[in-house]
Design a protein that fits this description.
single chain; 414 residues; alpha/beta; seven-stranded mixed beta sheet; 13 helices
Length: 414
């Protein structure tokens, strides 16, 4: 009998379903698989944990980015990727867990961004912060809690937490975090005056990066590990291209970002997709914390980043190689040799090599006079025209700054 139904002309899927295997075996040991990472990658529980751990350690070993005894700061947000990263580092530093122990001195930093997130209940925010701080403190590593508005001031209001023995200790430590009301007000006003959510997310990303580097320098850390997964970086690749930041892609998505000189940002989770991380957390019984962000409960087309995330995630469902294809394509890009030279001009905001010197660009590149980035204080006048924008910004930062209000408050943090 033909597999096409008589009424609708649609193929009968029953014969196809019968051909599908009901179970798979582990590709390594041959035992019954409990999870399937990709179409051809089925693992049992133990083999998957070995695969995940080996993939993480081999990424660090190939680059030899970490030196024995080096102080490494872990950026912890409470999300699935950062929870997995924290667990991998903790397991790696414990004696007897692996043949080659991670010989580093880790610390954990959490950035409270509640001052720029609108419509967030204070009690819910405090509970989320307490949960994140408790997870970080349970590792036994030094934990630094900072407010996002600290980037607006010359000092840091970070608070180092000891490992708490009771939940009441975490609540007490969270409530005792010092805050700068004036800095929070300036930052909140800056985000409220932004014309689009795209500009807010781009600015938040830059401020977060600057604050991580600031905390690392304050406490003597030379490396900062972030939990950017391959899925997140694939979305970042498409988003940066759409926002005019193509020249900075190798720095924004590469394994090591050395644009800040003495502090290097490392992305050891870039080889994992979100599905792998979720499976690892499930098997290891690791709980993540949901902390509301700027993109929480927004429309699909509210920002370029959110729209790109919806697009990539939708393709990934039916085409499992979408993330890896986008990621591998972006990984082939590299920073030009000319931009690596010491005298090459860099953007005052994101510190990426300037890309505004060629014809057809909105601005001509210009070196900062005294290196203090004072030009950012005069980014906007009453007319907010492109001519008043600083010539020491890259094209992507020019687009972002043109959608902000009075940017003079940023000068203290740049």
């Amino acid at each position: 009998m033909d597999s096409t139904s008589a009424c609708g002309g649609q193929p009968d899927l029953d014969p196809l379903r019968k051909k599908l295997p009901t179970s798979k075996n582990c590709v390594r040991c041959g035992k019954a698989a409990v999870l399937v990472v990709q179409t051809s990658a089925a693992f049992c529980r133990d083999c998957f944990l070995n695969y995940f751990t080996h993939k993480f350690r081999s990424g660090l070993g190939k680059t030899r980015i970490l030196q024995p005894g080096e102080k490494v700061l872990l950026a912890f947000s409470g999300g699935p990727a950062s929870v997995a990263l924290l667990n991998l580092v903790k397991r790696g530093t414990e004696e007897g867990t692996q043949k080659k122990r991670l010989k580093i001195e880790p610390g954990v930093v959490f950035i409270d961004e509640s001052s720029v997130v609108q419509g967030l209940d204070v009690d819910q925010q405090q509970k989320a912060v307490q949960a994140v701080c408790k997870i970080a403190a349970d590792t036994g590593f030094p934990v630094y809690n900072v407010m996002l508005e600290d980037v607006m001031t010359g000092h840091s209001s970070d608070s180092e937490m000891d490992s708490p023995e009771r939940e009441e200790d975490v609540e007490r430590q969270v409530k005792s975090l010092s805050t700068d009301d004036s800095g929070a007000h300036k930052l909140k006003t800056l985000f409220e005056e932004a014309k689009s959510l795209t500009a807010k997310e781009d600015l938040l990303q830059m401020l977060r990066c600057k604050l991580l580097v600031k905390v690392a320098r304050t406490h003597g850390y030379t490396k900062v590990m972030v939990g950017d997964s391959g899925t997140r970086l694939s979305i970042r690749i498409m988003t940066d291209i759409a926002q005019g930041r193509g020249a900075a892609l190798p720095l924004n998505t590469g394994f090591a970002d050395d644009r800040h000189g003495d502090v290097v940002i490392v992305r050891p989770m870039r080889d994992f997709i979100a599905k792998e991380i979720s499976m690892y957390n499930t098997i290891c019984k690791l709980e993540s914390v949901f902390v509301p962000t700027l993109a929480t409960k927004v429309a699909e087309k509210a920002s370029i980043s959110h729209l790109t995330e919806t697009f990539i995630s939708g393709l990934q469902v039916n085409f499992p190689s979408t993330v890896s294809t986008v990621f591998r394509t972006g990984a082939k890009l590299c920073v030009s040799q000319g931009s690596k030279q010491e005298g090459h001009k860099r953007c005052d905001m994101c510190k990426a090599p300037l890309d505004t010197g060629g014809q057809g660009q909105p601005l001509q590149s210009q070196a900062s006079g005294d290196g203090k980035d004072e030009s950012v204080a005069n980014l906007r006048t009453e007319n907010n025209s492109d001519k008043q924008l600083s010539s020491s910004l890259c094209h992507g930062c020019v687009l972002t700054m043109s959608e902000l209000g009075d940017c003079s408050a940023l000068s203290a943090g740049l």
